[in-house]
């Protein structure tokens, strides 16, 4: 499959800068969420996943593996990640232990149908162009056996916003609704919106089940 403009962007020097900004310890990751929302990422994970029986997990766009490492510390096993930026994959493999991280595209996942109990994104769908969003959601839906989980910028409408001086690189929207509109077999299990403490922007956590 031909690379999208967004994939080329994230494989460039900008992707390297993003990787360097977001290489965090687990304590730093939780502190970031607490500073932004008044609740740690660990607390969010427990709220959404605490009562689920999950055998394996795939993260799309895992960068250096922060989110997967936190899930591992919380007791989850059989963790997998896929990341477009090769240098992030290299760093992820040194940043984590016993987590399966591969280089590749979310538009062409190297996994069979229904391979994972849960597939998730965190701040990834916001960087997918509206013309491509259905394609990546189709792949996520394909490899998920049971659950799809997301934590993304929220807006009732799918709108572009400037991103560090770049246009057409970030969109916020109602991604849970996009999933359920595209796939009738998906049901919304849980949804919660998190307001930033410093402004009126919202992020949305959502859990969908086949």
UniProtKB/TrEMBL annotation:
Pfam families the record matches: Methyltransf_11
Family matches, as InterPro entries: Methyltransf_11 (IPR013216), Pseudamin_synth-assoc_MeTrfase (IPR020027), SAM-dependent_MTases_sf (IPR029063)
SUPFAM superfamilies assigned: S-adenosyl-L-methionine-dependent methyltransferases
GO MF term list: S-adenosylmethionine-dependent methyltransferase activity
GO terms under biological process: methylation
Top-rank taxon: Bacteria
UniProt keyword list: Methyltransferase, Transferase
Positions of the Methyltransferase type domain: 58-146
Coiled coil, from the record: none
Matches recorded under NCBIfam families: Pse_Me-ase (TIGR03587)
Name of the featured protein: Methyltransferase type 11
Organism for this UniProt entry: Candidatus Yanofskybacteria bacterium RIFCSPHIGHO2_01_FULL_41_53
């Amino acid at each position: 499959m031909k690379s999208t403009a967004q994939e080329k962007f994230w494989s460039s020097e900008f992707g390297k800068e993003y990787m360097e900004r977001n290489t965090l310890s687990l304590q730093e990751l939780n502190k970031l969420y607490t500073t932004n929302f008044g609740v740690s990422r660990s607390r969010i994970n427990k709220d959404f996943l605490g009562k689920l029986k999950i055998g394996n997990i795939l993260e799309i766009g895992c960068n250096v593996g922060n989110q997967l490492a936190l899930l591992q510390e919380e007791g989850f096993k059989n963790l997998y990640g896929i990341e477009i930026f090769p240098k992030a994959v290299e760093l992820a493999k040194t940043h984590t232990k016993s987590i399966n991280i591969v280089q590749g595209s979310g538009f062409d996942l190297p996994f069979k149908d229904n391979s994972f109990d849960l597939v998730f994104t965190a701040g990834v769908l916001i960087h997918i162009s509206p013309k491509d969003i259905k394609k990546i959601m189709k792949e996520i839906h394909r490899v998920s056996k049971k659950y799809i989980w997301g934590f993304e910028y929220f807006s009732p409408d799918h709108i572009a916003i400037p991103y560090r001086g770049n246009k057409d690189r970030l969109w916020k929207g109602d991604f849970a609704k996009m999933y359920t509109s595209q796939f009738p077999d998906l049901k919304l299990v849980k949804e919660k919106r998190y307001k930033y403490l410093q402004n009126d922007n919202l992020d949305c956590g959502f859990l969908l089940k086949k």
